[in-house]
Predict the 3D structure of the following.
Amino acid sequence: MSINVGIIGTGAIGREHIKRINNKVQGAQVVAVTDINAEVAKKIAKDIGATFFETGEELIASDKVDAVVVTSWDPTHEHYVLETIKHGKYVFCEKPLATESEGCRRIVDAEIEYGKKLVQVGFMRRYDKGYIELKNMITSKKYGEPLMLHCAHRNPSANENYTTPMAVSQTAIHEIDVLRWLLDEDYASVQMLLPKQTSNTHENLKDPQFIIFETKSGVTIDLEVFVNCRFGYDIKCDVVCETAEFGLTDPAFTKVKAEEKNYTRISPDWQTRFMDAYDYEFQLWINSVISGELTGPTAWDGYVASITMAACHEARETGKKVNIELDERPALYC
Ligand code: NAP
């Protein structure tokens, strides 16, 4: 069996996912595309032999489309996801699920009303081999309970449009999901600190930012977000357990010994660092659509991320520790 996918949003990551679905993974093909920028989408449709639709609503409703991928601008996600649920089709939505937690909750409620999970959110860190190994080690309890996590999310540079809240909503959002998944528990509270600022930032961006989460069982997580670090795209996650520490390495690049130095490369960007994770994420999503049972990050995970991000913003603005209060988890997501 092979599924017919419609893509809403043929920008940077939409085009990556089209290539991924058509050329890299098995079991699906892109048959329909749309974008507010019609000229670009029409050209892509022609290049890949897909149908161009004037609107996302028409694409979702079309009999040609079995499942939908939403890769349009953040504020459009909620509408397209709700529309797809109305048609009882599976939808993969890039993060964020919605720009506000109320929007995420509306999606959760729509799914509950439909009575089945249809939504997967694009939290791709869960598909990275390194994080999967960390999760297996934590779950095995071989080294006792996890006590502390030391994490960092560093980008070489951020442009003038990237502002202070985006360090959480565009960047830390990935850690917010994956660390909770690693530990298999929710956050209880968050604090934020603004360390000494880099001279490489601009007036609308506080950089770096330092986030401290405490989980319900008391695990402490420190997360540095530093988006003008200049030296590369660098992701750290070290887990301190009762009798061991283990953590991520960069994916293996070549080791170089030269000029009295011994070094490995740092990834230049997130595409290079997590390419394999995106491929694996889509292969498993397609497999689960074919099998009729989604296994990836849910609308509830999108809701939790959104509530957590709002608490981070409050913690940064007030300088206080903020409790993270979630609605009761609905049975559909237990
Ligand atoms: P992008 O290059 O700006 O692409 C977004 C596309 O959506 C643009 O072509 C835009 O058209 C189009 N669009 C805007 N409103 C639309 C609407 N109402 N209907 C249909 N299309 C519409 O952005 P991107 O980097 O690809 O990001 C797209 C989404 O993926 C974002 O939500 C982002 O957060 C997410 N993302 C996730 C990851 C990840 O690691 N999981 C990585 C990157 C991006 P115009 O250009 O004409 O506005």
Q: What stands out?
A: The pocket of NAP is lined by residues 8-14, 34-37, 56, 71-74, 76, 94-95, 122, 124 (CB under 6 Å). The chain has nine helices and 15 strands.
